[in-house]
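Service request form, structural biology core

Requester: graduate student, group of Dr. S.
Request type: structure prediction, single chain
Budget code: on file
Notes: please return the result as C-alpha cells.

Sequence provided:
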Amino acid sequence: EHIKAGISTEEINSWVNDITYKMGGVPAPLNYEGFPKSVCTSINNEVCHGIPSKDIILKDGDIVNVDVSTNLNGYYSDSSRMFCIGNVSEENKALVKAAKDCIYEGLKQVKPWGFLGDMGQAVNDFIKSKGYSVVREVGGHGIGLEFHEDPWVSYVSKKGTEMLMVPGMIFTIEPMINMGDADIYVDEENGWTIYTRDGKPSAQWEIQVLVTDDGYEIISY
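Core staff response, request fulfilled:
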C-alpha cells in the first residue's frame, strides 16, 4: 500500500531501514562492500542493485524490484519481489509473472542429492519457452552465517551439473529475467547498478530455500 506512484525510492529505503532495526535486525546491504543503502530498488531496465535516492520517483507504469536482506542474531535472510506501479502494460505484467513462475519451476527440482544444475535448467527452459532471457553473470548464492556463501547458483546451468544439493543447504533462487537479450552492464558512476544492455525491462523475484531430508522449505519470501 505504501509503494505507489509519487514516492521516492529513498522513502522505501527509510521504511525498510526503520522496520528492520525495530524488529532487532540489521539491514544486510548497508555498507556491504561499500553499498550505501539498506535496500536495493531496481526499476524497469535496472536488473539489480539499484541505489535508492530521493531524486528517483516512482511513476505510473513502472515495475520495481525491492530486494530486502537482513541480519538477525547472526543469521542472514534475503528475498525480493516485484511491484507494479499503477497502470502497467500487459507486456510488462507478463514479464513480472514469468519471473515469479520460473522460481516454482526451479523449486520442482530442489531435493536432496539432486544437482543445482537440475534447478538451473528448469528455470532457463521455462523462461526460454516464454520468449525471455536469463541473466548469466549474476545469480543466486548460499546464505547463512555470511551474506554470500558458496555455492554460486546459476540459472543457465545444465541438468546433472553443478553442486549436489544436500540436507541443510541454504541458498537463494533469484533468476533475473530480461524481456530482451541477456546482456547487461554495470553503471560506471556508482559501480553497483546493473542495467539491461538493450534498455528493455527486467524482472526478478527471490526466495531463500532450505534443502530438507525429503524436499525443501521456503524460509524467506
